[in-house]
Amino acid sequence: MFPKEKNGITAAVNALASSYESHIRPLLDAVDRLRHLKVMEEGINLPTIVVVGDQSSGKSSVLESLASISLPRGQGICTRVPLIMRLQDDSTLSTPVIHLEYKDKRVPTSESHIASAIEIATGEIAGSGKAISNSPLTLVVRKKGVPDLTMVDLPGITRVPVHGQPENIYEQIADIIKQYIKPQESIILNVLSASVDFSTCESIRMSQQVDRNGERTLAVVTKADKSPEGLLEKVTADDVNIGLGYVCVRNRVGEETYEEARIAEAELFESHPLLRRIDKSICGIPVLAQRLVQIQAQLIAKCLPDIVRKINVKLSHNETELDDMPQHLSSIGEAMRVFMQVLIRTRETLRKLMIRGEYDNFEEEKEMHGAARLVDMLNQYKKELPHDFPMKENFLMEEISVLEEARGIGLSNFLPRTAFLTLLQRKIKEISYTPKGFVNKVWDYMEGMVLRILDKESENYPPLQAFTRRAARNLIEKMRRRSLQTVKEMIEMEMVVDYTSNPDYMKAWTDLMEQREKFMEFLQNPLMPMVMNIKGVGCVDVGHLRQQHEGLADEAFDLKMRLVAYWRCVILRLVDVLALHVMYAVKNLVENELDCEVMNEVVNGGCGSQANGLERMLEESPATTAKRERLGKSISLLMESKEVVAKIMDKTSINVV
Ligand SMILES: Nc1nc2c(ncn2[C@@H]2O[C@H](COP(=O)(O)OP(=O)(O)OP(=O)(O)O)[C@@H](O)[C@H]2O)c(=O)[nH]1
């Protein structure tokens, strides 16, 4: 499929270029355009050939050989920033056109100045000295006969910091390398010196961490001229699991020209007694160039559909996020419109939750099921109220002592009303804390509900929230006070007036009084048991009434039966009236009062020098502005990227599956 090696790199690459120009070039241009657009900052990885290797393994020399240009080279750390090297074959050029791109700058340079230009640029990015940086430097070389390749050269891995290097240099370099080799879209070009045992190479250890089976790793063995012994055995044994295979090379040595270097390399693998035994299909820079061009084309074709998908997903995600962001308000009119929407939505949500019992948006949040929670609170309140007339002392003793104190001169068969009222008041006082507790509970709950809904509906406008929260709290306090006043009046009315039109009262009393005769018989007949089961009261001991209180017992029994019958009406009234009051107040709050209170606070709240709520809504928080800008930038970048990829998809036969 690929042309066989002819006389050196130029011939081979020319042949490649003519057969693949129409396919590889546009794909490469598209990927480079995406790289230039910094689409990787959006979390979209691009197909990349990443050059890694231990320090001084010969990475830069390999790149130099491929490009036939001089890069900074030597002992110690030379590559201090990721160097993206873009080689473009341009047969129309008689002299190469070279430039560097970094920090939004484009710096033209020439073949003879390239090394120093890179050193200057590296210094600007990473600072002078030996420090390293993660910001890349791009080198674009347009030259006749170079392979169309884009590769990233990374700083060499060093365990021991040399003088002037930070203590954590290893971690810093390892982090950069991992970031580049981790994505599945990266091909790892692992540069190994023939003079070392491959299994001890740090770069092998690192690439194995991200590419266990070596499927994405190609090894280039340099310095074949310096250490030819055992090289054939090493690449044949493949102890370090290199999936894409090995290519052995000899780079330029000393002041050789690139032409001289290629001739020397060809001779070396042709005539050296140890090296000539190595298969020619894995020897020399021209072979490496062919392999890389082939791998790169396959990689791009494989990755492009996924890149398109990722761009689309990211784009629609960012567009939705931007759409969901609060609208930037520029006039009071706009602020008013948005505020009214907040009010309307709040009212509708509360209406559903508190009145209609529709919980569609809060299905899982039981505490938000307002109408049902109000019923729970009412049931609990009902349970806490004593349904039977409370009795503390022995049966009828309290009634007898009250009757004794209420005696006056008059006919003895009239039951004194004051005795009835005294006992009633006493018992109502005892239970008065229960209705108070109930209304407090209701308004505590309502405060939580109203604040939560208001906060949710106005979450995009934090300055508005301060006003709406204040209004809601004030209103709930007002409603709470009103309810407590209602409870107070209700209790007072029960204490001063004994009245009911409920026919159940007379029916119940008559029913209870039918036990009177039997009760008197229990008192008068010493043979009867001491304990009697009285309807409405339960099993009671009556022995203490036999000797001393027989005279008043009959009257006290009647009084007790009236209280028992009436108590049921009182409890019913305390429950019913308060239930109606609470439901009415909640409905009123939702339908009318909340709107008025919030509106008043927002429009008139910030008196004097302070801005009112609507004016405050016009102020956007710096975080929101920054987010809006970031999303806007990201969307235009992704749209541009999408266009770049769409064009290339049209030109080639690659489809998104
Ligand atoms: N004889 C010989 N020397 C080589 C070969 N390849 C590289 N060298 C020499 O090895 C030294 C290190 O090479 P570089 O290309 O700078 O190594 P590097 O991996 O880029 O170095 P750092 O970026 O500093 O990690 C240089 O002096 C090169 O001239 C080769 O194939 N044969």
TrEMBL record:
Ranges of residues in domain Dynamin-type G: 43-305
One term of GO molecular function: GTP binding
CDD domains documented for this protein: DLP_1
Keyword Hydrolase assigned: no
Keywords on record: GTP-binding, Nucleotide-binding
GO CC aspect terms: cytoplasm; membrane; microtubule
Classification via InterPro entries: Dynamin, Dynamin_GTPase, Dynamin_N, Dynamin_stalk, G_DYNAMIN_dom, GED, GED_dom, P-loop_NTPase
Name of protein: Dynamin-related protein 4C-like
Domain GED: 556-653
